[in-house]
Amino acid sequence: MKIFKNYLSAILVILCACNNAEDPIGFWENHRPFTTDYTIAEMERIDFFSPEAESRGESTLRESSGLAYSRKNPGYLWSHQDKNNDNRIFLLDVNSGETVAAYRIKGTRNRDWEDIEIAPGPIDGIDYLYVGEVGDNDQVYGNYSIYRFEEPKFEEAHRGQIIDLEIPFDEIKFQFPNKNHDTEALMVDPKTKDIYLATKRDFWSILFVLPYPQNVNEETTAIHAGTFSFRVATAGTVSRDGNEVLIKNYDRIFYWKRNESESFIDMIQRVPALAPYNPAEAQGEAICFDHQGGYFTLSEFSNSIVPELFYYKRLN
Question: What is this structure's pTM?
Answer without folding.
Answer: 0.92
